[in-house]
Amino acid sequence: MDGSHWVGVKAIAQEMGRRGHKVTVVIPEISIRMGPGEHYDTLTFPVPYDQAYIESVMATNKDVIKRSSQSFTEKIRTKFSQVKRIAGFLHITAESLLFNDSLISHLAEQNFDAVLTDPMVPTGSLIARKLGIPTINLLRGIPCSLDIKSAGCPSPPSYVPRFFTRYTDKMSFKERTVNTLVAFLEPLLCRLMFWYFDEIAYRFLGEEIGVAEVLSDSAIWLLRMDFTLEFPRPIMPNMVLVGGINCNVRHPLPEDLESWVSGEHGFVVFTLGTMVSELPEETTAIFLDAFRQIPQKVIWRYSGKVPDGVPENVKLMKWVPQNDLLAHSGARAFITHAGSHGLFEGLCHAVPMVMVPLGGDQPDNAERLASREVGVVLDIYSITTESLLWGLNEVINDTRYKENIQTLSALHRDRPVDPLDLSVYWTEYVMRHKGAKHLRSAVHDLNWFQYFSLDVLALLATVVLVVVILSVQCLKLFIRKLGRKRKQD
Amino acid sequence: MDGSHWVGVKAIAQEMGRRGHKVTVVIPEISIRMGPGEHYDTLTFPVPYDQAYIESVMATNKDVIKRSSQSFTEKIRTKFSQVKRIAGFLHITAESLLFNDSLISHLAEQNFDAVLTDPMVPTGSLIARKLGIPTINLLRGIPCSLDIKSAGCPSPPSYVPRFFTRYTDKMSFKERTVNTLVAFLEPLLCRLMFWYFDEIAYRFLGEEIGVAEVLSDSAIWLLRMDFTLEFPRPIMPNMVLVGGINCNVRHPLPEDLESWVSGEHGFVVFTLGTMVSELPEETTAIFLDAFRQIPQKVIWRYSGKVPDGVPENVKLMKWVPQNDLLAHSGARAFITHAGSHGLFEGLCHAVPMVMVPLGGDQPDNAERLASREVGVVLDIYSITTESLLWGLNEVINDTRYKENIQTLSALHRDRPVDPLDLSVYWTEYVMRHKGAKHLRSAVHDLNWFQYFSLDVLALLATVVLVVVILSVQCLKLFIRKLGRKRKQD
């Protein structure tokens, strides 16, 4: 997985290598941000596209943020074509790896002890199955809950809010109804998301098996989750929570940046993640207009064309050391798209947030933190200078937000084992024991009506019904006999 | 909680004290085995019984093992009178503490940060609620699953075997039916087990609240469970698994014992836990007869009258260093009543087991380990010299048992944090953060039909029904009109 998904995989790969394991990372020749690192080898495979194609796929993110002039159908069309482009890109990449016979045989010869992969794109899982290697999954979650389903984990829709609903764990009757409907639709969504991979799985593995079944064989699920961000919900024995994996990786700021950010009013960090590097002109103007009116300095990760009229307190940078900036004592607010990595960094360093979610899990993430009153959510499509100023003013000047996030941050950082160490531990565990079969629940041997005991309930209901009917019949017979007897008397 | 329940509480109390916390253990003046230890203070309260009373309650355990001469109704009567005696003992002890006003006010004045308790007897939980102190529970499990219910944890009867059923996680349809029925009966069992405590709760707290509700406020559940013994099942975020808390506490054997156990054939360790120190004469004779026929030496924890004809290879001792003996390389087999502490020690040191469960969770525990083929189960009520010899021969001479338990032991010992350290960590966590509210699931705000979304399903079913009926009516109307029109034509 590319993009932000790569961050965690790279961190674990590097740490595993540093501890003396032989780590081989298999990546496409051309990618958004995947590449070599410390302590691991890379093995690249050719892909039938070039950097320009990737950039064109990425650029669709900007189209999606285009402001509200679009009609509803136009918006849907834009969204749909974006999803189609991204899916096409993922499928081509997966096929380029899976059907590269010489590479697959080369991998088979290495006798790997384990595969670490993000199963959101199940390429790694398919290779692991083909080569008979136990799998460790590192992921944030799959929107149709395929991860939860494949791990056999209960997820009652009565208090576990579904993806895209923006609900919390406390839902009204109406919300619970919608949430239950979404839960019913999840299998359909999974079909839509994975039908092509199901087909690839059949072609690659030569067995009648879907992605869900392949994933259900995973040894360990490293979930980039934490209950300071997520709401409490059931988990399974082979699920390990490693949210905030990069919190402690911290470096001092470069000298020029350090001197620029220093000042009595502190500064604001503004990034929209790796997938969006620039905004439509009118949105940019709104942000600049708001920034002009605050005393804080603003560091904005912005890699597009530099707009006119950038105020003095704003610094546009193609790349920012986000974690180090947030760790700085001068950080007053964090304007973020509410991607999980950014949120965990903000949470780690207790910086209140103004969240402008763009898509994916971001609107849900944002609502979760907003429900804990550690930040505010603004709609990027209808944002105005006033709403942005209101948001910044709230989180910077109302001390409640800072206090709340300090409390939440203390809880988030208070864990028996550092998430990166824990990830490495369970990866090594799978290598040592050739899997973790004793943690795999027996739920996988049941079909859905057995799982919900519907067959047992049907039997019990039948027994109760028969007993009731027989009793009533006996009673009737008895009353009739009694009546007859009386007549005879 | 006294007896084996005390072992874990004491270990944590000592370790907390060693780390510099002020630990006060509140215990009755007279008890089975509770008492002072290192690094903690004890506070005793008077109870209206003496040591002889406790011994008479304990002696009922021996009665229960009386051999099969008893008829079924007699057995039930014996069992019932035993349960009644134990319950009476627990209730008197609880009331002596809760209604000791000066002690309770003294406790209130101490401003404790946390209460550590075994909620199987909810005295500690009631005091914690009264004084408004967050609670850490340390327990093996409550037979009616009140712990699971109070933690809001899903427990599907389709693959989570219930207490007393002796089932594994792979059940036939018949077994699933029985298991589901037991699950249905659990609330009733809870009523039976806790009705008196519900009444005490009302008297002590002065609020209309039951034990279940008091427990649902617990901050952290330290469960003496491990998935090498238990079958994989869902857990909740505030449940922490600390099975095998005493595994690493190890000392060398006393010199005389060391020299006695040494020998080419190794030795067998035989204990039946703290609750049973002697057996009926005829059962003792069977054991001695079997031991006479094996080349191994046998160390038997036995505190009753020494029987005649004890063979040379058998050593009866009032107390044995069980964990240190099992850790010895000469240990060939462990004859145990399958109490959880003993099993975890056997598992920790990879000693195959002959299990003779007596009651409580022991038959379930025994079946669990037997299903992993690390030991055999014998029925203490119908045991014979032959069956015992068969069992010992199996686990000592069939290398499969030793290999299996070595694999299972390696999995059991391979944990990111030592269970005792983990217990202390979460206890300190609760003290640092004054509870762990963010780990408490929203399931507690739902009633049972909301939890199972039954209200939502009823609405959805109604909607579907109305739509179907309306469609059928419309279709009828349409057909009728069509028919009339045709007639008119």
Automatic annotation (TrEMBL), chains A, B:
The keyword Endoplasmic reticulum applies. Keywords: Endoplasmic reticulum, Glycoprotein, Glycosyltransferase, Membrane, Signal, Transferase, Transmembrane, Transmembrane helix. It is a single-pass membrane protein. Its EC number is 2.4.1.17. SUPFAM superfamilies: UDP-Glycosyltransferase/glycogen phosphorylase. One of its GO terms (molecular function) is glucuronosyltransferase activity. The chain crosses the membrane at residues 456-479. GO terms for cellular component: endoplasmic reticulum membrane. It is found in: Endoplasmic reticulum membrane; Membrane. It catalyses: glucuronate acceptor + UDP-alpha-D-glucuronate = acceptor beta-D-glucuronoside + UDP + H(+). InterPro entries: UDP-glycosyltransferase, UDP_glucos_trans, UDP_glycos_trans_CS. It is an enzyme of class 2 (transferase). It comes from the Eukaryota. Belongs to the UDP-glycosyltransferase family. This is UDP-glucuronosyltransferase. It comes from Liparis tanakae. The lineage of its organism: Eukaryota, Metazoa, Chordata, Craniata, Vertebrata. The gene is UGT1A1.
